[in-house]
UniProtKB/TrEMBL annotation:
Species: Xanthoceras sorbifolium
Sec23/Sec24 helical domain: residues covered: 465-576
Region span, Disordered: 1-23
Protein name as it appears in the record: Sec23/sec24 transport family protein
Signal peptide feature range: none
Sec23/Sec24 trunk domain mapped to chain residues: 87-339
Transmembrane segment boundaries: none
Source taxonomy: Eukaryota, Viridiplantae, Streptophyta, Embryophyta, Tracheophyta
């Protein structure tokens, strides 16, 4: 379990926290394979026997005071022996109202999935369009049975899927029927325009619709699988491949809201396109959870699909949302393999307890609160990268007492279930009776942390973790954007930096007062007195230039914005830092690094004089050869060089597969690379300014600080 606080020394009281201008909170990656210092967890058994405090129910830990007969609560990892049989279940649902290119990519992704799923897993294969198709791959040749989807928005299937094909026929053991599943994938063909017209009938305003009955198909699949929840499986994973917006049957979406009408109505497009247009998919996620199903949604499309409505089906069922704007450069097969190769926990409960002086304020991430207990969150499915955030409030005005030796404490308990493969059980000495069978184990991770309080503002500023500050800020601006629009999210971020800068200048006595008015010798907007704060202005500038917060008029697709919201709100702090402010390094040859870090500006490229640049923007990695590079340098770089080793390490350490691009400056279009050189761009996207973007941004912050302090 990895835990990172925004400040490693906590503010002493509400006044100290208020005057610092810093967010106070932490991020937690509960199922991480190592903690924030790279340490692996310590395992033990009989976790259910751990002593607990009678008052607050916190677990016994090494910070508790002991005497001969008792222990005092200060506010290990254990596992109990609850084991039941279950098999991993995976179901693919493929959109046939699509193109041959879409189906070819989906085929590649599912072939990768078949290689990644564990032996003994069960696999089901379904298709949807104006009808839903169920494949039986357990016979000599694959057989598909279809049911037509009613066109009306309130309709459901005329027959239960169990009556079309028994679930035991639909879910096939992968190791036995892998070849048959592959054969079934080869039979996929897009529905013809004639079929769609006949099946879909007239759509909105008499326009013929595409016949993509996604909502009805998903609801039917969840009810179908739910009959075996708790018997055949403990968690079923559905992979839904979508090539456009649902436009047939229940859950169809009106995509006309994306277009010129917002300009004509004078509406804020950024605000209008962020909320869901129907609660259908939020409600459907609840149906999925009740059926023990987690949905991963793969949207492969460049048309408006309204992910603002669809996202709930994935994130509220514990799944992930992926968006690929075209089939040519998609990393879908690699993402699929990567996702299924890493361990995951499910039916998780995350509980945060604090010492009495402070309490959790807001919670951020893809989890939902317990309806009964405070500070308890439920997570349907969680992998080793999934990260959540909290911010804190003081319980009273006194804060942490300076007159006692007691320090702020917090404890995070994470209870979860894992599917344990047979080989792991036999190596653990659990006998031959379990051979060939998967078992469920309920486990518990506990992390207890003690913090020190900062004696003064300098100490607080010296112990800032800028990456974790960025994480909490991103959560806050996403929330503000969803509730009040992108413009409001940008203002919140801008105002936060202004207030932080003003508080810092006050704290370091960079402000003098005459006759009650503040007089500045010079405002320090670069935090020259405090190294830990120096990265924050650049991070805020970069976040304002990120598509997450750029305006609709700049050509930011609303679905891409939603995808980034879902991605960013689940990333751990270091990955989020890369995604917001990419890492740019240079090489003198493919085997020799020149500089480990440059600012994102053209000036940095020119002054470095290096011929090769490597840019890591988390979702994209670019190798750029400058136009002045020696033609004798090998392009692209050879597989066995230092540059390639660095790229491979970058690709290994992340939750998604980054797109790798090689560009030769002067010979190929360098726009993809130059777009990341943000420091000469104007912060609000109105084009290149007469002065450099980041410099003028700091000047604007200076003026805003002056006004704020007046």
């Amino acid at each position: 379990m990895a835990v990172r606080a925004t400040v490693s020394r906590f503010p002493a009281d509400p006044d100290a926290q208020e005057s610092s201008g810093l967010p106070w909170g932490l991020t937690v990656t509960p199922f991480a394979s190592k903690d924030e210092n790279g340490q692996s967890p310590v395992y033990g058994s009989d976790g259910h026997l751990l002593p607990r405090c009678e008052n607050c129910y916190a677990y016994f830990n090494t910070y508790c005071e002991l005497d001969q007969w008792a222990w005092n609560c200060s506010l290990l990892e254990g596992s109990d022996d609850e084991m039941t049989q279950a098999r991993p279940v995976y179901v693919a649902a493929v959109d046939l109202s699509s193109s041959e290119e879409f189906l070819e990519l989906t085929r590649s992704a599912l072939l990768a999935a078949l290689e990644a799923v564990p032996p003994g897993a069960l696999f089901g294969f379904a298709t949807f369009s104006h009808k839903i198709g169920l494949y039986d791959v357990q016979g000599a040749i694959p057989v598909v049975k279809n049911v037509f989807i009613p066109a009306d928005t309130e309709g459901s299937l005329p027959i239960e899927l169990e009556d079309v094909m028994p679930l035991s026929q639909f879910l096939a053991p992968v190791e036995t029927f892998k070849e048959n599943i592959t054969s079934a994938l080869e039979t996929l063909r897009p529905t013809t325009s004639w079929e769609r017209t006949a099946g879909a009938g007239q759509g909105l305003d008499g326009v013929l619709m595409g016949g993509r009955g996604f909502g009805t198909a998903m609801e039917a699949l969840f009810n179908y699988l739910g009959s075996e929840y708790g018997n055949t499986f403990a968690l079923g994973r559905v992979f839904a491949f979508l090539s456009g917006p649902p436009d047939h049957g229940a859950g169809q979406l009106d995509t006309r809201r994306y277009g010129e009408q917002y300009a004509s109505k004078g509406e804020d497009a950024d605000r209008a396109l962020l909320p869901e247009q129907t609660p259908f998919y939020k409600d459907l996620a609840a149906v999925a959870v009740q059926a023990g199903v987690c949905v991963d949604l793969f949207a492969i499309t460049n048309e408006y699909t309204d992910l603002a409505s669809l996202k709930f089906l994935s994130i509220e069922s514990g799944g992930s949302l992926f968006l690929y704007s075209n089939t040519d450069e998609s990393t879908l097969p690699q993402d699929m393999y990567r996702m299924l190769s890493r361990p995951y926990a499910f039916n998780c409960i995350l509980r945060l307890r604090t010492s009495s002086e402070f309490k959790p304020g807001h919670f951020y991430g893809h989890f939902f609160p317990d309806p009964q207990y405070e500070n308890v969150q439920h997570i349907i499915c969680c992998d080793s990268y999934a990260t959540y955030a909290y911010d804190f409030d003081f319980a009273n005005a006194a804060g942490f007492s300076r007159h006692t030796s007691e320090q702020p404490m917090l404890q995070i308990a994470f209870q979860y279930t894992v599917v344990v493969p047979p080989e792991e059980l036999s190596s653990a000495g659990l006998g031959s009776s379990s051979r060939g069978k998967y078992s469920l184990k309920r486990r518990l991770r506990i992390r207890t942390l003690q913090f020190v309080t900062a004696q003064n503002i300098n100490e607080l500023y010296d112990n800032v973790d800028p990456e974790t500050v960025l994480s909490v800020l991103v959560h806050k601006v996403i929330l503000a954007s969803l509730e009040q629009g992108v413009r409001e999210g940008r203002m919140l971020l801008h105002d936060w930096l202004v207030i932080l800068t003003a508080q810092y200048n006050e704290a370091f006595k960079l402000v003098q007062y005459k006759n009650g008015n503040s007089v500045m010798s010079q405002i320090d907007v670069e935090f020259l007195q405090c190294p830990q704060l120096q990265r924050l202005p650049r991070l805020v500038f970069a976040l304002l230039r990120n598509p997450l917060l750029r305006f609709h008029e700049e050509g930011v697709h609303p679905d891409y914005r939603i995808y980034l919201q879902c991605l960013f709100s689940a990333l751990e702090p270091s990955s989020l830092h890369r995604a917001v402010y990419p890492l740019l390094m240079s090489y003198s040859t493919p085997d020799k690094q020149a500089y480990p870090r440059h600012s994102l500006s053209r000036a940095a490229l020119i002054t470095s004089g290096s011929p090769i640049f490597l840019l890591d923007a988390f979702t994209t990695i670019i190798v750029f050869y400058s136009s002045t590079a020696d033609p004798a340098l090998p392009f692209p770089p050879p597989q066995d060089c230092l540059l390639r080793t660095t790229i491979n390490k970058m690709k290994q350490d992340r939750s998604i597969t980054p797109k790798l691009i090689f560009i030769r400056g002067g010979k190929e279009d360098a726009t993809a690379f130059e777009n990341y050189l943000i420091e000469e761009q104007d912060v609000d996207g109105s084009g290149l300014t007469s002065v450099m973007g980041f410099v003028s941004f700091l000047e604007d912050i200076t003026q805003s600080v002056l006004e704020y302090m007046k």
